[in-house]
Amino acid sequence: MIQGKVTGRVWSSKHVETMPGGALLEVTLENGTTLVALDPLGCAEGESVLVTQGSVAAAYFTKMKAPIDALIIGSIDET
Question: Of 3, 5, 8, 43, whose CB count within 10 A is highest?
Fold first, then answer.
């Protein structure tokens, strides 16, 4: 898992049919790099999140072969 912060949204009006529902969010990681992750949870800008990548992210979708490389799997509670 990778920790990051949601820094924006990415809009895609055209995409492949096997793209699952959910928002595409821009996530800035602790090392300063940015990636786009699918968000099935409904996270907001400024929220700290946990991201998984690669085959683990794609395997979350059991009913289809989803073209996903990064998936938000948790929202970090601020203490």
Answer: 43
